[in-house]
Design brief:
With 116 residues, the protein is α+β, with helices and mostly antiparallel strands. The chain has three helices and five strands; from the N terminus they run H-E-E-E-H-E-H-E. The protein is globular.
Length: 116
């Protein structure tokens, strides 16, 4: 899933298909977990001191992987040198099917996601 990041539709930012209703979104994630449906969620990110997206509840038991996406294009346009980190979350049902030992879930580069 790749919903619009929270905060990207505000103050003239990009607004994909509109903002999602956070509480309904979280309820839907709990429903997917209760039905043991595996999923990957691209949800939040950070650049410099700015973080996008409200924290997801710990009770969802998602595994967060931060991806170093490189230098922020937006920051570069604003004459700043900042790195963007994007986050993906793995559902409990997916984690049960894969070997997390193959990747460092704390922080990975984009090329490290391609596991042989």
């Amino acid at each position: 899933m790749d919903p619009p990041y929270q905060g990207t539709g505000k103050n003239g930012g990009f607004n994909y298909a509109g903002n999602i209703e956070f509480d309904n979104f979280v309820v839907s994630l709990f429903d997917l977990n209760n039905r043991d449906i595996p999923y990957i969620l691209s949800y939040d990110g950070r650049t410099g001191e700015k973080t996008y997206g409200s924290a997801l509840p710990d009770e969802l038991n998602l595994v967060k992987i931060e991806i170093n996406a490189g230098r922020s294009s937006q920051a570069t346009l604003l004459s700043r040198d900042e790195i963007t980190f994007e986050a993906v979350f793995l559902s409990p049902a997916l984690v049960a099917k894969i070997d997390l030992g193959a990747i460092n879930t704390a922080l990975v580069g984009q090329t490290e996601l391609f596991i042989e």
